[in-house]
């Protein structure tokens, strides 16, 4: 088929053309094989998360404290190994099939033989494969870190798929992409604008402007790849922590400490309200950073990518499927083969579960060998007990006491490693204090619900607009985010005086003077520290954590 000229493209876009079926792209077996494989991969990753088959280094306090997810600690090792094998096999399928179908789509794009409808299916089948593979990559991070060769070739495959998807989004930039302009009342009219050759939209917008949603798609695509691939490298994680997370946290803590100190010195309530105002900014930012570093973020990326891709495939097929008739609904060899190939991962799983091979067994560490630099887990010895004094004092006093204690302890340390260890310990204490606040927990849960609500609204609007008009999802997302921020701020404003985070430090101690000098509080801290030291001497886990902290990965957010 010859490439159409610009005039021919305009005529087809305006009046439509007869859509020819292509079962190799949009046949029922091909589409089902992609969708089933993607959803099975997501279900396996989600099941591993829910049933405690994810290594502790992949979880943070959002996972362990809010959702009460238990990390994998060696129970049922063969099930754990079977899940790993299954995810490896399924993720490999996602890479290979995604690259294969994008290659077929580009061949049709080059020759001008693939329609807008079929290229839409090609593009979003590969999009689904990419989204699910990123979540699988997160689950496999500990394994890939120990197997450089396995990681390297998968990263090469991911890079190829990223480039193909990036180029594949180019035709969707046009505001005329996927819009039905052939509004014909006759039921038997076979023409549709979906039959427009996809090459007609290659670098052409026909004066109707650029679709901002395509730009948003590029941002999401590149951002998710940089985020999840960078998470595989310790240096990349350290770069993020030291260049963004830690400076933001230090600036926020400095502001909070300044307001708390000024209120302690002057007892003027304007400084207390400044402290609360800073918390209104500090809490949502900290909540977002904690969610972004949690395993739930990977589940959101995969789940939303799956739903979005499913809508972009299913709705156009419903709209124009009747026009291609039996050519894309019949079952033959080309439709059964990809479905039968879905059985292949079952062999890898059964091999691990049923065949007891010592060479494939995983190393199960003793309880004293577990090291959680990023969070504490339920049932594990904590940095301090929640019923002890430091957790009961208001946040304004706590942050001043912590700063004073950190300054004193840092003065006694020499060497970069010792300073980093002390910083890490204080950051962990601050995080643990914040996580015990019902207001911060409410922020985490509200943010998760906000993501679900925003996604549901955008998807519902997008589903109604496919084939009719461009939904401008970026605008819907922007409005939804603004609404979320406003509601979040209002909730914090009304609730913060009643939370320990923003309570008046002098509410129950109006006659107490000079608490900013940390006199009585430091006595409480020393008393607590002695009890904690007594516990630490009897806790091999805490002793091992202290000994290994220098080589561990820095924790999340606060420092």
Overview of the structural elements:
This protein is mainly alpha-helical and 559 residues long. The protein has two domains: 399 residues, no CATH class; 97 residues, no CATH class. 67% of the residues lie in helices and 1% in strands. The protein contains 21 helices and two strands. Strands 1-2 form a two-stranded antiparallel sheet. 36% of the residues are buried.
Q: Give the overall shape, derived from the CA principal axes.
A: globular
Reading side by side through the largest sheet, how are the strands ordered?
1-2
Percentage of β-strand residues: under 5%
Distance, first to last CA: 62 Å
Pattern of helices and strands: HEHHHHHHHEHHHHHHHHHHHHH
Q: Tell me the number of structural domains.
A: 2
Summarize the structure.
With 559 residues, the chain is mainly alpha-helical. Helix content is 67%, strand content 1%. Mean pLDDT is 76; it is low at 358-389, 509-533 and 535-559.
What attributes characterize this protein structure?
transmembrane, 2 domains, 559 residues, mainly alpha, two-stranded antiparallel ribbon, transmembrane helix
Q: Secondary-structure blueprint of this entry?
A:
Elements: H1 6-15, E1 17-18, H2 23-26, H3 28-50, H4 61-66, H5 77-111, H6 116-139, H7 141-146, H8 148-168, E2 191-192, H9 212-230, H10 234-266, H11 269-292, H12 295-324, H13 333-340, H14 344-354, H15 389-392, H16 395-411, H17 416-435, H18 438-465, H19 473-495, H20 519-537, H21 540-548
Antiparallel strand pairs: 1-2
Helix pairs in contact: 3-5, 3-6, 3-12, 3-13, 5-6, 5-8, 5-14, 6-8, 6-9, 6-12, 8-9, 10-11, 10-16, 11-18, 11-19, 12-18, 16-17, 18-19
């Amino acid at each position: 088929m010859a490439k159409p000229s610009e005039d021919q493209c305009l005529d087809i876009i305006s009046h439509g053309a007869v859509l020819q079926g292509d079962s190799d792209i949009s046949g029922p077996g091909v589409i089902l094989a992609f969708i089933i494989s993607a959803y099975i991969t997501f279900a396996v990753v989600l099941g591993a998360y829910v049933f405690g088959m994810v290594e502790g280094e992949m979880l943070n306090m959002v996972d362990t404290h809010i959702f009460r997810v238990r990390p994998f600690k060696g129970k049922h090792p063969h099930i754990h190994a079977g899940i790993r094998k299954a995810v490896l096999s399924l993720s490999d399928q996602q890479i290979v099939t995604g690259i294969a179908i994008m290659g077929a789509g580009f061949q049709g794009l080059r020759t001008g033989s693939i329609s807008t409808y079929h290229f839409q299916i090609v593009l979003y089948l590969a999009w689904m494969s990419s989204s699910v593979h990123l979540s699988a990559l997160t689950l496999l991070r500990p394994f890939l870190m120990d197997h450089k060769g396995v990681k390297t070739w998968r990263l090469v495959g991911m890079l190829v798929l990223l480039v193909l998807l990036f180029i594949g989004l180019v035709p969707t930039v046009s505001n005329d992409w996927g819009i039905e302009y052939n509004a014909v009342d006759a039921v038997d009219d076979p023409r549709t604008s979906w039959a427009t050759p996809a090459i007609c939209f290659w670098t052409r917008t026909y004066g109707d402007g650029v679709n901002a949603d395509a730009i948003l798609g590029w941002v999401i695509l590149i951002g998710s790849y940089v985020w999840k691939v960078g998470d595989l490298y310790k240096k990349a994680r350290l770069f993020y922590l030291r260049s963004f997370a830690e400076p933001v946290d230090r600036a926020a803590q400095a502001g909070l400490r300044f307001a708390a100190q000024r209120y302690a010195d002057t007892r003027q309530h304007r400084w207390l309200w400044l402290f609360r105002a800073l918390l209104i900014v500090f809490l949502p930012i900290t909540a977002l950073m904690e969610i972004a570093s949690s395993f739930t973020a990977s589940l959101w990326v995969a789940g939303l990518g799956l739903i979005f891709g499913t809508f972009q495939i299913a709705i156009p097929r419903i709209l124009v499927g009747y026009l291609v008739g039996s050519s894309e609904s019949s079952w033959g060899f080309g439709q059964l083969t990809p479905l039968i190939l879905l059985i292949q991962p079952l062999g890898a799983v059964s091999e691990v579960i049923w065949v007891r091979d010592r060479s494939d067994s995983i190393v199960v560490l003793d309880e004293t060998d577990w090291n959680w630099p990023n969070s504490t887990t339920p049932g594990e010895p904590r940095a301090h007990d929640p019923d002890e004094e430091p957790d009961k004092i208001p946040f304004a006093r706590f942050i001043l006491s912590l700063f004073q204690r950190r300054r004193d302890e840092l003065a006694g340390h020499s060497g970069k490693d010792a300073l980093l260890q002390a910083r890490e310990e204080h950051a962990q204490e601050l995080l643990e204090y914040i996580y015990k606040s019902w207001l911060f927990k409410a922020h985490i849960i509200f943010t998760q619900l906000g993501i679900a609500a925003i996604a549901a609204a955008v998807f519902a609007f997008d589903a109604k607009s496919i084939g009719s008009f461009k939904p401008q999802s970026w605008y819907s997302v922007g409005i939804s985010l603004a609404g979320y921020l406003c509601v979040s701020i209002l909730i914090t404003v009304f609730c913060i005086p009643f939370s320990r985070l923003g309570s008046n430090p002098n509410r129950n101690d109006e006659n107490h003077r000079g608490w900013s000098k940390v006199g009585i509080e430091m006595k409480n801290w020393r008393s607590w520290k002695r009890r904690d030291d007594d516990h630490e001497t009897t806790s091999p886990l805490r002793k091992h954590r202290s000994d290994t902290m220098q080589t561990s990965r820095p924790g999340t957010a606060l420092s």
